[in-house]
Amino acid sequence: MIQFDNVSKRYEGGHEALRNVSFHINKNEMLFLTGHSGAGKSTLLKLMMMMERPTSGQVFVDGQNLRGLPSRHIPALRRNIGVVFQNHQLLFDRSVFDNVALPLIIAGYQPRDIARRVRAALDKVGLLSKEKKMPVTLSGGEQQRVGIARAVVNKPKILLADEPTGNLDPELSAEIMHLFEQFNQVGVTVLIASHDLSLIARLPYRMMTLRQGQVVSGISGRPHD
Ligand SMILES: Nc1ncnc2c1ncn2[C@@H]1O[C@H](COP(=O)(O)OP(=O)(O)OP(=O)(O)O)[C@@H](O)[C@H]1O
């Protein structure tokens, strides 16, 4: 589903954020990405969404080689990828419903379809009763779940999360991980970048570790799908 072949990324200014990174994530897999601050985790996620481009090497997402992908195809690529951030990046002057509806409005869905899909996504994260609330009135864990509902409302095949439990206590973090597992169980490929080793170690998924831009443990990458 996601494959990196010898990918390096050097930012302008000379910093090499990733060095010869190769791996493969299977369809329907759930996988953790760990590493020290600055190891290259966010860079790796950005390359999958074409928010950055590799300096060398190739990235494949859902069978597409991103190297040859014309810019006009980037929106379609991104619709296939839901993204969850640590600080959830909600709009605080809009209701929970409106926040979750945003990707659908951008994609040009009809209002009736939007309402149906937004409620289905809120139901999945257990927040159906809070659709009219403003984000500021919700707890940190609830805000993060709104961010997850927004990430899955388009029914993406891939879900990427960058430190999704960074600000949460252990109990809420475990709940958020359980939500990701539920999406994974219905066929979504899930990649979670996290520092939270105590939480990750208890869960039965592969883990890939980056150190100074290189893969140091976890997975070796050959395609299966
Ligand atoms: N736009 C950029 N321009 C220049 N250097 C960058 C840019 N983005 C990231 N870097 C550098 O690349 C390296 C990897 O950064 P990245 O954000 O991928 O690490 P990370 O593992 O996600 O770190 P953290 O856990 O702190 O978020 C860092 O040294 C960072 O300073």
Commentary on this structure:
By secondary structure, the chain is an alpha/beta fold. It has two domains: 1-80 and 157-225, Rossmann fold; 95-155. 32% of the residues lie in helices and 26% in strands. The chain is built from seven helices and ten strands. Strands 6-7-8-3-9-10 form a six-stranded mixed sheet, sandwiched between helices. Strand 4 and strand 5 (64-65) form a beta hairpin. Helix 4 (111-124) packs across helix 5 (140-152). The radius of gyration is 17 Å and the shape is globular. Residues 220-225 have low confidence and may be disordered. The structure holds adenosine-5'-triphosphate (ATP).
Q: What's the gist of this structure?
A:
The chain has 225 residues and is α/β, with parallel strands linked by helices.
Question: How are the SSEs placed, and which strands pair?
Answer:
Blueprint: E1 2-10, E2 16-25, E3 30-35, H1 41-48, E4 56-61, E5 64-65, H2 74-79, E6 81-85, H3 96-107, H4 111-124, H5 140-152, E7 158-162, H6 170-185, E8 189-193, H7 197-200, E9 206-211, E10 214-217
Parallel strand pairs: 3-8, 3-9, 6-7, 7-8
Antiparallel strand pairs: 1-2, 1-4, 4-5, 9-10
Helix pairs in contact: 3-4, 3-5, 4-5
Pfam families: ABC_tran (PF00005)
Membrane topology: Peripheral membrane protein
Subcellular location: Cell inner membrane; Cell membrane
